[in-house]
């Protein structure tokens, strides 16, 4: 357990550092969460592929309070599992709300389908299959699934044309990049490591980067200051903070404030113009460190096996010299 927690901390620190240096660190955070989850399996796979021989001259000093240490470790593991269970119950209740929203949605009027099709330059068939309306929401949002869905509020037709265009481009970017599914995965990752502050910070950094990319897609060909003003005008509406849903206003007012400051303070950057080497260097560094941690896990398991072997082979009643 100590090996996994140490490896997780190192990987999250590296991912956060690389994410802060990159223009958009969402892919780095996503890669790190997937590799951290697969770390025990990677270590087991390396151990099977490259078996490590037990050393014959390895000497260990066993502490006298090993039973106490084992009991303390078991207590920590029980607390960890109990925390995961509580967070999963909360996620399940929120997911039920997501399903209820999807079940209560309705098809868009033909006029709205035509307007959205023109705004996004997409066929009307695509718009009808991916866009619906709901009377239970106040701002647009994306519901995850194999067939992700954009929900528009019932008062959508009363919004100004400029605000409609910005919100549509924002949510369409989320849908195209499956951000709602990634949002659900990040919630599960945070639930599994609920006690680790770096896990919570990583999810927050990913969320900010995800919203920043969608905002940049929304302001393409328009004034970022006008888009920020539209967001500020909607700030009185309650953000819909449900796990698995990517909403137009985000999950908190603090995150919305950060988005507005980013729009007003930093110029628009096109992520597609980044060098290819810069795009892959971060995930590659994460992968290399993951393999190193997995190899360290092999040695950790080997030492435990050596300890068990020495204990079993030791003479309980050694002869007098």
* Overall geometry: elongated
Oligomer: single chain
Low-confidence stretches: 54-67
Number of domains: 2
State which percent range the strand residues make up: under 5%
Mean pLDDT: 80
The radius of gyration computed from the alpha-carbon positions, rounded to a whole number of angstroms, is 25 Å
Name the structural class.
Answer: mainly alpha
The biggest sheet amounts to:
5 strands, mixed
Mind explaining what this structure looks like?
- With 321 residues, the chain is mainly alpha-helical.
- The protein folds into two domains: 71-273, no CATH class; 277-308.
- 66% of the residues lie in helices and 5% in strands.
- The chain has helices at residues 2-21, 26-49, 66-103, 110-120, 124-130, 161-176, 179-192, 197-218, 224-233, 253-265, 276-313, and strands at 106-107, 131-134, 141-143, 149-153, 246-247.
- It has a five-stranded mixed β-sheet, with helices on both faces.
- A hairpin with a 5-residue loop joins strand 3 (141-143) and strand 4.
- Helix 1 packs antiparallel against helix 2.
- Mean pLDDT is 80; it is low at 54-67.
Protein topology:
Blueprint: H1 2-21, H2 26-49, H3 66-103, E1 106-107, H4 110-120, H5 124-130, E2 131-134, E3 141-143, E4 149-153, H6 161-176, H7 179-192, H8 197-218, H9 224-233, E5 246-247, H10 253-265, H11 276-313
Parallel strand pairs: 2-4
Antiparallel strand pairs: 1-2, 3-4, 3-5
């Amino acid at each position: 357990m100590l090996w996994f927690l140490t490896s997780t901390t190192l990987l999250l620190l590296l991912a956060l550092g690389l994410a802060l240096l990159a223009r958009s660190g969402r892919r780095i955070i996503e890669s790190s969460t997937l590799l951290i989850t697969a770390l025990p399996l990677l270590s087991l796979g390396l151990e099977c592929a490259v078996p490590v021989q037990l050393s014959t001259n390895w000497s260990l000093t066993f502490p006298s309070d090993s039973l106490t240490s084992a009991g303390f470790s078991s207590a920590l593991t029980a607390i960890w599992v109990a925390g995961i269970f509580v967070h999963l119950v909360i996620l399940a209740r929120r997911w039920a709300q997501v399903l209820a929203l999807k079940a209560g949605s309705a098809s868009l009027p033909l006029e709205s389908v035509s307007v959205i099709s023109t705004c996004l330059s997409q066929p009307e068939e695509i718009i009808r299959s991916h866009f619906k309306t709901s009377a239970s929401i106040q701002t647009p949002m994306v519901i995850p699934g194999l067939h992700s869905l954009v929900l528009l509020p019932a008062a959508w037709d009363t919004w100004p044309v400029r605000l409609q265009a910005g919100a549509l481009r924002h949510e369409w970017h989320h849908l195209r990049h499956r951000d709602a599914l990634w949002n659900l995965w990040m919630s599960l990752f945070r639930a599994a490591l609920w006690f680790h502050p770096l896990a919570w910070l990583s999810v927050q950094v990913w969320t900010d980067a995800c919203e920043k990319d969608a905002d940049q897609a929304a302001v393409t060909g328009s004034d970022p200051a006008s888009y920020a003003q539209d967001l500020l005008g909607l700030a009185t509406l309650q953000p819909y903070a449900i796990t698995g849903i990517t909403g137009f206003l985000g999950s908190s007012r603090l995150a919305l404030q950060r988005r507005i400051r980013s729009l007003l303070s930093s110029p628009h950057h096109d992520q597609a113009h980044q060098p290819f080497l810069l795009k892959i260097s971060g995930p590659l560094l994460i992968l290399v460190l993951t393999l190193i941690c997995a190899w360290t896990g092999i040695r950790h398991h080997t030492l435990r096996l050596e300890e068990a072997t020495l204990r079993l082979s030791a003479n309980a009643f050694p002869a007098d010299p």
